[in-house]
Write a structure and sequence with these properties.
461 residues, 9-stranded mixed β-sheet, Rossmann fold, single chain, Elongation Factor Tu (Ef-tu), domain 3, elongated, 22 strands, alpha/beta
């Protein structure tokens, strides 16, 4: 039942407080109207007895305790969804901003999502080919996985995300699927960043498969909290009702965390680590855990959240908690970026926990698991030898160590490095791996089975 209140207790910033309110739900949508007829949406963010705090999506300039009418809608925040959302652009609260008209649908979906019974979840198995060797070969992305990109200010995470969107191919049991779509959520981005993604999708010819939810840096802070939820709701709809394989890209989760901190401060909650609210972990989990697959549905939701680590600090609360929730991470390196290596993926701290179940014979190739382990092992030894070379000098290294140095340079220059427009399939990636490993003696290839060496190693390369 819809309720209207004409007397408020306080209007402060984007918050409205009122009392003597009954039968109102947490997260309920509110319509706020002043005496000039200007209407704004809001959401209930706190209930204390008969007192309620409402967060307004926008400024409360022109609103006072005497000239404002608050109407409780009796429903959570919902957005209309149909297949027509493909190719469209919306703001953070799901309203069209591309002059394409409203979305008309009989079905409205709660942005907080629908609870998934863990028993009904399907275990992720099939890999997504991104065309990027360091990801496909060493940090393989699996359909239904949540795999974040840990980046830093000024690093090319946007370019990497756009390249993944442009090149990604879903393969189910070795067969490529065409029912593939992308949901892109921009959280607190600058206008030029949003323009970059729009142009990247247009040039790649995939704009008709992309749904964009954009919250600009100058948009209301509350929209920043709703935007990723609206995007994930659209992804769930496409995956579980339209049988699409959906790749969700969200940037920047750090902006989302800062929005949570600001709202928490306005609500005068007791802060936790570095001023972030104590419920940051569960709030992030409420986003990340919406990725996955269902046993009785063909579609899937794969999530790649991007977060910029303040001061490149991987122990910062947002990347730290994200690492606990998600199934691995892709870490970008400022040191590699300064060497003009693109994409600057630091493979050693990066990992994909679901990789082992989605590669190998029947998925990628029979040599993939072993060659991945060998590349990790050899490259980790390179780091130790480089540290030693800084102390004793390269000329005093043993022949074995010099071969590892040569391998490390070739690995970064030929395997990790590839151009923004270069798309390598998994066979090219694995063949390149063998070619680089041939720089080492066979005695050093202790992670490879002899029959694989005999089958794939091309002597003389």
């Amino acid at each position: 039942m819809k309720k209207e209140y004409l007397v408020l207790d306080k209007v402060e910033g984007a918050l409205i407080e009122l009392s003597k309110v009954h039968a109102v739900g947490y997260g309920e949508i509110v319509q706020v109207e002043n005496n000039l007829g200007e209407k704004k949406l809001g959401r209930v963010i706190k209930i204390d007895g008969d007192k309620v705090v409402v967060q307004v999506f926008g400024s409360t300039l022109g609103h006072s305790v005497e000239n404002t009418k608050v109407s409780f809608e009796g429903r959570p925040f919902e957005i209309p969804l149909s297949r027509d959302i493909l190719g469209r652009t919306f703001n953070g609260i799901g309203m069209p901003i591309d002059k394409g008209g409203d979305i008309y649908s009989d079905n409205f979906y709660n942005v907080n999502g629908r609870p998934i019974n863990p028993v009904s979840r399907e275990y992720p198995r099939d890999y997504i080919q991104t065309g990027i060797s360091s990801i496909d070969g060493l940090i393989t992305l699996i359909r239904g996985q949540k795999l974040p990109i840990f980046s830093g200010s000024g690093l090319p995470h946007n370019e990497l995300a756009a390249q993944i969107v442009r090149q990604a191919k879903i393969k189910v049991k070795g067969e490529e699927r065409n029912n593939f779509s992308i949901v892109f959520a921009a959280i607190g981005v600058k206008h030029d960043e949003a323009f970059f993604f729009k142009e990247a999708f247009k040039k790649a010819g995939v704009q008709n498969k992309v749904v964009m939810y954009i919250n600009y840096a100058d948009d209301p802070i509350m929209e920043r909290i709703i935007a990723p939820r609206a995007a994930l709701t659209a992804a769930e709809y496409l995956a579980f009702e339209e049988n699409q394989h959906v790749l969700v890209i969200m940037t920047d989760i750090t902006s989302y965390g800062e929005a949570l901190r600001e709202v928490s401060s306005l609500r005068e909650e007791v802060p936790s680590r570095r001023g972030y609210p104590g419920y940051l972990y569960s709030d992030l989990a409420s986003l990340y855990e919406r990725a996955g697959m269902l046993k009785d549905r063909e579609g899937s939701v794969t999530l790649i959240p991007i977060l910029t680590m303040p001061n490149d600090d991987i122990t910062h609360p947002i990347p730290d908690l994200t690492g606990y929730i998600t199934e691995g991470q892709i870490v970008l390196s400022r040191e590699l970026h300064q060497k003009n290596i693109y994409p600057p993926i630091n493979v050693l701290p990066s990992l994909s926990r679901l990789m082992k179940d989605g590669i190998g014979e029947g998925y990628t190739r029979d040599d993939h698991p072993d060659i991945s382990n060998q590349l990790f092992s050899a490259y980790s030894k390179v780091q130790d030898i480089r540290a030693l070379a800084q102390i004793v000098g390269e000329d005093d290294l043993s022949d074995r160590d010099k071969r590892y140095m040569k391998f490390g340079d070739a690995f970064e220059a030929n395997f990790v490095t590839q151009s923004y427009n270069e798309n390598r399939d998994i066979d090219n990636t694995l063949e390149l791996s063998w070619k680089i490993l041939s720089l080492l003696s066979q005695e050093e290839l202790d992670r490879l089975k002899p029959d694989l060496i005999e089958k794939y190693m091309k002597l003389g390369d």
